[in-house]
Amino acid sequence: MGFWWRPLITLFVIALIALMLWAGGGQFLAFKFAVVALLVYLVRQLWQENRLVRWLEQGGDKPAPSDIGVWGDIFYRLEKLQKRRSQSQSELVTALCRFQHAAEAVPDGIVILNGQDRIEWCNPASRRLLGLGAERDRGQYIHYLIRQSDFVDFLNARDYSRQLNINSPANRDIKLMVQLVPFGAEQKLLMVRDVTELERVDAMRRDFVANVSHELRTPLTVVGGFVETLNDMDKPADADLKHYFGIMINHTRRMQRLLDDLLTLSRLESSPNTVAEEQVHMPELMRELAREAESLSRGRHAIRLAIDSQDWLSGSLQELQSAFSNLVSNAVRYTPDGGEITLRWFGQNGHPVFAVTDTGEGIASEHIPRLTERFYRVDRSRSRETGGTGLGLAIVKHILTRHKARLDIQSTPGKGSTFSAIFPPERLIPAQTEQKPRLSLVK
Fold it and tell me: Which residues touch 15 (CB under 8 Å, ≥6 apart)?
């Protein structure tokens, strides 16, 4: 009734006046007034409708026409609805922009496909992983652009619970995992994730298990074989016993070193990221490392000690000594007799640096990026002969990473190698007294 009362009152007033004129002035006058009044009312309605149409044609962006009565109420309500619609549109556009920005920021590739597997949209990550272009490839069939039979079969299967690993069409070195997700009425989301690193880690895990098994199997086989031999011998000679037990002891020690290194790696990986902030007396530690190198070398190499700085280092003494000892023992093991090994402590552009230089066989450049992998060896047979476990540089890398340092390896085949532990400037503890650098030969 809220709408009808105003036009009904208007018509009632016209009728009432017409009746009064009929009673006072005759039937013709009353009829004439009623016709004129209704005509004016109709013209006004048409005029208001015209104002409404023109306002709507303008998009309703301008303020609605003002009036009184029914049309004033209509214009007010329409303007209110228009403002509400504009606000909803603005919120929807904002939400859509946020969704698009979020989708573009996702590191995984996202491709929206329609019911015919045509591309409707893709984010920047999919361009990097799949080589797609949002504008260039819009409307293209996805299987025209990714021509791999496994992918085409996966797409046709419509199995949303299945995942597929493929090589990236943009870069064959990148491994991708793709999955389809239903989206909307007939659309689909093609989710693409870079799993190259996961594949690499998984391969390293498989290699690690295989290498540990192989490394332990050899000494266990040797020890077990000698135990069986001794068990079968009625009266073994003393010389034979000494020979057999010597070999068994060597292989037992090899297993012990391997297990010790495995436990060290496990401890480093499971311990908190924070390290003990001790003041490490580096000049004294350098002299101790030089004595250790001389003990390992047994006079087969010239061991030189270069202490170019009297500064100390902040960090865990136990961990740093373990890392430096691994670098020193590697240099001794892989440097031929008569070679030279130099231990150096110095500063470089504000960074404290510990370096070990040898005149060994050197390492080819293609092997250097993988040297810190567990059990990675350039020459597997030679590594076993020297008694290495294949875990030393992996331990060094973990310790340096914990100290926010890095390992730099420079090597030239046939000339030798330099392994440098480069620490951040904040780990430097300036020396209390300045002393001149010195180079000494450990005897």
Answer: 34
Hey, is 165 helix, strand or coil?
Answer: strand
Q: Where are the beta strands (DSSP E) in 186-287?
A: 187-194, 278-280
Condensed to tens digits (0 to 9), the pLDDT of residues 380-391 reads 555 455 555 677
CA–CA dist 355, 66 (Å, integer): 86
Share of the chain above pLDDT 90, in %: 19
Euclidean distance between CA atoms 331 and 325, whole angstroms: 10
Q: Is the pTM for the entire model greater than 0.70? A: no
Task: Give dist(CA 442, CA 51) in Å, integer.
Answer: 104
Q: Which residues contact 14 (CB under 8 A, 6 or more apart)?
A: 33, 34, 37, 38, 41
H or E element that contains 69? helix 69-105
**Residue 165 backbone dihedrals phi, psi, to 5 degrees:** -105, 125
d(CA 91, CA 97): 10
Q: Which of 10-14, 230-234, 281-285, 402-406 shows the lowest mean pLDDT across its residues?
A: 230-234
